[in-house]
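new request in #modeling-help
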Amino acid sequence: MTPANDGLTAGTPAPAEDLPVEDLEDLALSDDYALNPAFVEMVVDAADLGNLARLRVLIEALHPADLADLLGFLSRGYREVIVPLLTADELSETLSELDGPLREDVLELVAPENLAKAIGEMESDDAADVVDDLEADRRGQVLAAMSPAHRISIESALSYADETAGRLMQREVLAAPQFWTVGQAIQHIQAGGDDLPELFFDVYVVDPSNKPLGAAPLSLLLRSSPDALLSKIMEPVTEIPVEMDQEEVAYIFDKYHLISAPVVEVGGRLVGQITVDDIVGVIQDESEEDMLALAGVSDRGRSDTIMGVTRSRFWWLLINLGTAILASSVIGVFQDSIAKLAALAVINPIAASMGGNAGTQTVTVVVRALATRELNAANLLAAVWREIAVGVMNGVAFAVVMGAVTEFWFHSPIMALIAGLAMVINLIVAAIAGMLIPLGLDKMGFDPAASSVVFLTTVTDCVGFFSFLGLATLILLHH
Amino acid sequence: MTPANDGLTAGTPAPAEDLPVEDLEDLALSDDYALNPAFVEMVVDAADLGNLARLRVLIEALHPADLADLLGFLSRGYREVIVPLLTADELSETLSELDGPLREDVLELVAPENLAKAIGEMESDDAADVVDDLEADRRGQVLAAMSPAHRISIESALSYADETAGRLMQREVLAAPQFWTVGQAIQHIQAGGDDLPELFFDVYVVDPSNKPLGAAPLSLLLRSSPDALLSKIMEPVTEIPVEMDQEEVAYIFDKYHLISAPVVEVGGRLVGQITVDDIVGVIQDESEEDMLALAGVSDRGRSDTIMGVTRSRFWWLLINLGTAILASSVIGVFQDSIAKLAALAVINPIAASMGGNAGTQTVTVVVRALATRELNAANLLAAVWREIAVGVMNGVAFAVVMGAVTEFWFHSPIMALIAGLAMVINLIVAAIAGMLIPLGLDKMGFDPAASSVVFLTTVTDCVGFFSFLGLATLILLHH
């Protein structure tokens, strides 16, 4: 109706309502590529006004990954308004970006026909993940609304355990017989075909029983003579067994810098491929899991309820309370000594605290080295000795510092000696425990990230308190 | 000379000396894809015997990534034997797999001509990294031994700051003018040419001033009609500015599932590309850094000396000693109260320890959420409130538990009340501090992973000791 902007309004930003789509796209993200709060507010305002046309325009300005973020930032009431507005296309891309409780929540808001259509557009790995998140009755509805071919492919993907190569892989894969030439392979791709993945990087060369023999990257294919045999130009591949744990798969991709790898079933036949873009997410998840587990956090989703988060942290804290009480009972043993000399209670926590910190350093290094396989039978002993040597050296250094501080504070050379001795004992114990606890848990098949710190601090608190108060009772009070 | 195996030796494994190369390759790795200790021992034995021919055979059985691991597992004396045996080809691939002090050490063992040749075979990003690790005089020697084109490309890569897109990118990139057809692009690739990267996934479509307009994945190129214009089939690209931090680059790759992205200089001209295989390493490094930093560990290399590790941990422990002494001085204030009632010293550490644990849970979640950008202006306030609510709920729960334990232990309802009050106070303070400390550090431009925990435990120890001993002095001893 009116000209968007003239001399008179220069300097005044145009009201967001009038912004063309390109400007909205720019506005959607702030400088750090995270969703712009101003944009989220525009969505909220449009939803409050019931302006669905406006909401559509805003949604269209977003990349699926940002749309997924938006859904996470909004409360459920707003999601109820926005999710039904999404096309099957937008849904299929956005659902792949979501996970956990948030995805389950979004799935509940989608009509079954629209959902079947959206899942039909996904690659088989993403489709299986989404179907897995559906409740049993809705799963039946959605599967029934699909083409038989699609249903079978999803059901077969779901037959593999969660977090295995079979779940991670896509079944769409480009395989070519070993006797084909480069030209034949290119013609096959140019002819298209439903079995081709949407995006792929390698042609897998297979023998007559469909076992992978090698791979030809597309860039190699394009640069080779059309008459060359695939079996001549192909490069060796690392086969991923279908039942391999995804953490293992990620390790192999990282180690050998793979872009894609063929997945084979028990007999060695090619059943799918895993591409590196799926692995990036796995690597993020696995190291996040370790990091959070070390701190005793098992919840991850933004959309977990306060009750859920409280509960998930409660158990870790309860275990810690148990160990804190156990450590306190060590102090309880020396209650009489403290009654005679209250200064002991003042210095008592220091060696224990230092042991906890030093031991946590060691535990973290070991947990990380186990996860990245930097620590193994070949270098284990050297690593154990190194940690103990570090513990001894820092133990001696801090014994001196601690002795000096105690002497300065309480003017008692004997107490300074005791504090220093307790420090060196506890830092050495911390190094040994910090090494052996995660290694032992790993050996026994437990996750070293999840419980090492609790065991460690129990040891360092008890040893810290016992060595200081015990030495004090022995030397200072019985003489 | 003798048949490798006959009926008589069945069941006896052939001595490793006689194993064909394929069997050696199998033997090199154990089931978890880590280097097999038995294989490392074979290398050590061959080196001890000075059997260089045997060492060559063993080296050839290894993938460069495993050869890099082997060099890490061996002591310097063995590296001195093995490194000179490596061909320029093996060196070029192995050096790209190494980093830190180990790479510097290996570089010292390589003859300059061989090194120049090895670097000449690397992609520009890896080559620049290696040259950057050389000491000044060797750098000059090696650069002088290179072709001028190569030298210029490395010097230009080194002109970008460490850990930026400019350093991460490879300069070899396939760009095609927007008016080309698919057929022309394919012909260009088939014609080959030195400017083409060895492995690539996308053709970047550029305008006459060399600014990227879009990209055509090779698989799309192969499936499109040869007559189609690139500008018609191309897909949008996310441009990476050359000065962008690598953590930011990794975030964008992860978020938008990119396989490769064009890197542009200030005017927007295409200067290189980053591929996802480089990003996998960055993601590993960045999350590893955060995880280790949370525990106060700054060393990472396997090959750091014991003195180096001791020193790097010493500073964190010294800071922790300072905060432990500060917390102890809080206890010192209440020395008279403890002298009157030694039981106070027994219960005193519990609330502080629980606060430290609960606060560390919050800090870890916040640090991780900041790193993955899950936490931003749009949802910050909600997240803060959620953590405080969780702190209040767990605070109340543990106040009850703590009160019950104290009553059971010391049969004093007043002491139980005090212990419970101290617990709820400290868990709420822990939630607030655990949230605000990393957010504040981040806001001020510090790394929240590196120092949050120290600040946090200072707060929770001091508040824990002060609230319990203060309340006890106030309620129990002054009445």
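bot summary: Residues 40 and 73 of chain A are 8 Å apart (CA to CA).
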